Amino acid sequence: MSDQSTNAMVELIKVSKTYRPNIRALEDVSISIRSGEMVFITGRSGAGKTTFLKLLCKMELPTKGLVEIDGLDIRKMQGKRLSLLRQQIGVAYQDFKLLTDRTVAENISIAMEVSYLKQQIVRKRVRALLEELDLSDKHSSMTGDLSRGEQQRVALARAVANSPKLILVDEPTGNLDATSTGLVMDMLAALNNSGATILIATHDHTIYRDVDHRLLELRSGQMHQLRDGVMQ
Ligand SMILES: Nc1ncnc2c1ncn2[C@@H]1O[C@H](COP(=O)(O)OP(=O)(O)OP(=O)(O)O)[C@@H](O)[C@H]1O
Ligand SMILES: [Mg+2]
Asked: What domains can be seen in the chain, in order of their start residue?
């Protein structure tokens, strides 16, 4: 491995993803994302943004090519090693994937169960996350009863609850007004400042317009770099 890639958190080498029967979602994508970077990935609907994020947490396997997370070939990760890796990756899905018959607090706490934290610490962390995202009054509501914008913020809180080193967020502000968008982006910026690597797939140019992080665009299955990033 070259020196440059030793501190890569995400490394894709000539990755293609074809869905049956013949949908070429990604073609020959090679990209390296350094540990501690915050990167925005844009592109038209259907360009492959969600597919790209799914490859990084092994929700999908590449048809061709190599995907490495923190220097480890994700294809070779199975069983306990894969679970350990997944504990280090927080994902806020585009379709949220919340347990709709559980409360907001339960949904977020579940993400922390694997780390054997004391209940008191879990409860404190849940309250702090809800406060940060202006959701304190929804603590004990069923997530199925929430608005889409509220559900979106719960999905983010769950993704970051365990302080993962890699955070993947798919359209985090699609249902949010400007104020809530600000809260979400402030939270992600703070996590990035504390060292997390963050990848954000988004159509929302307002969230990447005024920051100096790297900006990538997926177009016809290929990754283009629109803007270089400045590491904080
Ligand atoms: N499970 C699947 N089976 C077949 N085709 C799929 C599957 N998942 C995605 N696709 C197709 O792959 C392409 C890329 O989809 P993807 O969801 O990655 O796009 P996207 O950039 O996230 O779009 P959006 O902005 O609408 O969320 C699309 O043509 C989509 O229809
Ligand atoms: Mg998508």
From this structure: 1-88+164-232 (3.40.50.300), 98-163 (no CATH)
